[in-house]
Structures are given as C-alpha cells and as structure tokens.
Amino acid sequence: MAFGIARSPSLGIQPRLPVWIRWVNGEPKILAGGVPIIPFNSALRHRARHDGATRKSLAAYARAGALYATYCAYQGVGLLDIANDEFPSFVDGLLGLKFRNAGGEFVHLDGHARSRASADLYLTLLYSLTGDVAHLYDVSFDWRRYRRVVGSSHGLTAVARAHLLTGLGQRVHRIRHTKRKVMGLPDQEFEKMLRRAVELWGEYLAPGDRRFALEPEQQSGALLHRNLAILLCMRYAGARRSEIATIKIDHVDRIDHHLELETKGHRKGNIEYLPVVMYPEVAEQLWTYLTDHRPVVSNTADQGYLFLSHGVRDYGRPITDSVIREIFERLRPALSPRWSKQATPHTLRHACAYQLQGRVSSDVIMAQMRHRSTRSLDPYRDSALAFAEQLLPAFSDSVRALMVRVGLGG
Hints:
The chain has a 3-stranded antiparallel sheet, covered by helices on one side. It has a 3-stranded antiparallel sheet with strand order 6-7-8. The protein starts with 18 loop residues before the first strand and ends in a 5-residue tail after the last helix. About 45% of the residues lie in helices and about 5% in strands. The chain has helices at about 40-50, 55-75, 85-95, 115-135, 155-165, 185-200, 205-210, 220-235, 240-245, 280-295, 300, 320-330, 335-340, 345-355, 360-370, 385, 390-405, and strands at about 20-25, 25-30, 35, 100, 105, 250-255, 260, 275. Helix 6 packs antiparallel against helix 8 (about 220-235) and helix 8 (about 220-235) packs antiparallel against helix 10 (about 280-295). The protein contains 17 helices and 8 strands.
C-alpha cells in the first residue's frame, strides 16, 4: 500500500453531528460528535508534515472535509458510502439549498448560501483531500470521478493508484461559474502613479527627517525614492504587498541582479526567501534609497530591514503593510475613474506576470513570480536565477523608457 497504512476501521465509522475543527500543534483536526475523523485528519497531517502546506491552505482543506463529514452525518453513513448519484445532494447543500436527510426531512448543510464559485472551490478541495485518503488507505470514493483521464487507456483506477489523480481530466461533479478575470494595472496607469508620486514627494521633507536626520536638507525627496522603490518592486519584481516590508538589506544583490523575497505558500516551518531576477533600474532605485535617503539609525532599531518609516513617532523603524496601502491611497486620485476603484497593490504584481507572457516561457514566468507548480507542491527554488539571461532583456528597455518619461532616468 502507498504509505504502509493498513485498512483502518475508522473508514467505516459513521460521523455524528455536530462536526467541528480543532487545531492541535498547528494542525487541524476534524471531529464529529467528539470523535476524530481519522482518514481526513491523517491526510491533513500528511500535507502539513510532508508537503509543507500552509496554515491557510490546511484550514481550507479541513473546512471542505468537515462539510463532507457533516453531509455524511445527516445521511447516517460512512465517508465511503456516498454513491455517485447521491452526491448532487451534497452539491446542493454547498449552495445553501435544502436536501433530504436519512429521516426524509429537509435540512441545510451548515446554514451558509455560497456563491457558485465558492461552492466549486470546496468541491475542488474535497476532490484533492479525498484523493489523499484514497492513496493513503488504498480505497476509492464512488462519487470521485473524472470525465476523461489524460494519458491513460486503463481507466480511472489504474491512474489513481499510480498517480494520486491530482488534477487529471475534468471533474464529473463541478459547478459551472464565470471566473472573475484578474487584471493587471496597465502601463499608462502606472505611469500616472509615478508622475503623481513625483508631484507629491519630489521635494517633500518628511516630518521625521526634519526632526531627526543629521542633515535634514539632504533628505528632501526621501519619501519619493522610498515609495518609488516599493512600487517598482511590486511592478517589476512581482513582490506581494506583504513581502515588501520584510525585505532586508542583505536580500538585495545589486551585482548579480537578484532580490530575495519572503514567499507565502513556500514556508516549511521556518520562513523561506526565494530569489527573483531584479532589473538594473529597480536595483538602482533600491540602491539610491539605501545609500542616500534611508534613515540612519542603530541596527537595533531598523533590524536590517530596507524600507524604514520617515514619521516622527516611528522614525527609522521597519514599515508595515499599512504603509503600502497609504501609498496607494495617495496615488489613487491620479488614475482614471475605472482604475481609481480597481487598482490595488496586487494589480502591480499581475501586471508583471502579464508583461512576461509572450516574451518568456511559462516556466520562466512561474519561477519569477514564485508560483507553485499546478501539479506539484514543491516550490520553484532555483529556476528564476537560472533564467536571468531571458528575464533581464524582457523588461529592461521598457523600464528604462518609463523612468525617462516620468523624469526619473537619464
């Protein structure tokens, strides 16, 4: 058997209401009527300990498992006893519709009416979680079917035992919905932001610099250089808002053109930093801020972080996520009516990915954006730097031209 786990009596236990989730030592445990749902809990533990799943993803999988266990409890059956033709009733429950329980009464699954997209997400998570259970215990769920299986003429079972069925073919049980298209901030709108930044902070002397800087007159425009560096990191390095504040000085390699970013979804116990290729113009802005405008304080105060506050109360201390939000709010009026409502820090990251499309391969894009593979939970650790020769020419000319247009380049 896949992991040496023998057929467990827990597979035949019928869940009882109520069903809830309890966290123990950083791992979620699903309980039904006070009894642990061992098959799901084992799959969740395996994801946490062997696949490096984050707390957020574990919570989502646990919630999907708990909803399915709740449905089984209403039907008075075990996890493996839901037939394929019965499963649509569970789907109705996810959508907030009533279904008949074992006693013939109409009941709600959990009292929540979900959108079609949200309900389909739970189906996706449940397919994946039960796939782990099927592999760990060498069992099958009758309803867990696919319309077609890629690369196999032996049917679903043969592929399931060989490859966990993580994403092969199209799920039989799915809820059609219109996916929301995620847009990247257009270049012309980003240019408006930069022009607005020059107007606001080009000659501005921050209160903290005026009071604490050794040579206050040299700090005129310091906020412009800091905020510009932050915007360029998001737009051309694909940094997430939460990753900006965690950048440290020793994460910037100006010579070898790379920047290390704290990457969500790749943390296995300790925080992990993954490298991305850094364009010369971005590196130059980071270097200008670091050497000419970054507050000079003790190492104890700044903790080695690159971006520091220029305010009076927290002068020289690392910035927080709220600073990035404040920057966007100050620059938002410069955008067109549509984008003044839609623009967020994450739209800069999407713009970075979109601009790479058509210029480099999908592998290069996933490496630079630090996305997980669609078929593997292993992070892309080393690829971005290996593709530096492709990435640097992809953006350098356009970034340089943009900087010249807004008066920040020679």
